[in-house]
Amino acid sequence: MISYEYIDGLNTFMQTAHQCKNNGAVNLLCCLKNFILYAIRNEWIEKNPFRYYKMKIDKTNVKVPLTKSELDTLIHKSLPNDRLDRIRDVFCFCCLTGLAFTDADNLRKEHLTTDEHGTLWIHKPREKTTVMSRVPLLPYPIKVLEKYRHDPELQLKGKLLPVPSNQKMNAYLKEIADICNIPKTLTTHLARHTFATLAIEYGMPIDIIAKILGHANTNMTRHYAKISEANISREMQKIGKALAV
Question: What is the pTM of this model?
């Protein structure tokens, strides 16, 4: 029987025995909460054990996306070996397409299309939700795809990008961050955050970003696209110009 005490104990267990951070534990508990709500709707259980249980995200520990300057450094930095070079290519590809790690891993030739204007697109259902992502490709992602187009190992697998396991990717990204002097924790998911944040900063409408990210609605997109100081400064300058005497 799942009770308030069980949930509290599970939270403690995840953060101690499994050394799970607060935000990670909250995300897992949210999954359990959604299942509980599903069970209540189907009348499998009567009471909601989460009713009085408070879960709070630690906003001081939220991952900070890359700035344009940091992304430029990452793209152009000379790396010491092919292993890190391949990881950098995949990460930056995701930063400039908004693809999640698993979608980049499962990207195949049939997901690429060219429109009547000659623009290369990714049209791919997301692995997580099956919602279609529609991504027009910028020059750098096209360059990455071309770089690995004739890779024999990838051709054998039918894939387009040299994506390792998520664990290896995150470990290698830490090495790359140190080499590039980027004081942030680079992870596979940070690339998606970076894309959304930079798109917002450059004025892309939130509904367009949602289509690229493969979100069913813009509420999901707003989770990624935080308001940055660059946005605040730009909008304040608009007011300043309007009020100038």
Answer: 0.73
Following DSSP, what letter does each residue of the chain receive, concatenated? ---HHHHHHHHHHHHHTT---HHHHHHHHHHHHHHHHHHHHTTS-SS-TTTT------GGGSPPPPPHHHHHHHHHPPPSSHHHHHHHHHHHHHHTT---HHHHHT--GGGEEE-TTS-EEEEEE-TTT-PEEEEEPPHHHHHHHHHTTT-HHHHHHT-SS----HHHHHHHHHHHHHHTT--S---HHHHHHHHHHHHHHTT--HHHHHHHHT-SSHHHHHHH-PPPHHHHHHHHHHHHHHH--
Q: Taking all residues of the chain, what is their mean pLDDT, rounded to a whole number?
A: 87
Q: Which residue type is seen at 144?
A: V
Token pair belonging to 55:
């879960």
What order of strands is seen across the sheet that includes strand 112-114? 112-114, 120-125, 132-136
For residue 121, the cross-strand partners are 113, 136
Task: Report all structural domains of the chain as residue ranges with CATH numbers, in order of start.
Answer: 4-61 (no CATH), 68-230 (1.10.443.10)
How far apart CA 104 and CA 162 sit, in angstroms, is 9
Q: Are 22 and 58 in contact (CB under 8 A)?
A: yes
pLDDT digits (tens, 9 = 90+) for 212-232: 988 888 877 777 655 555 666
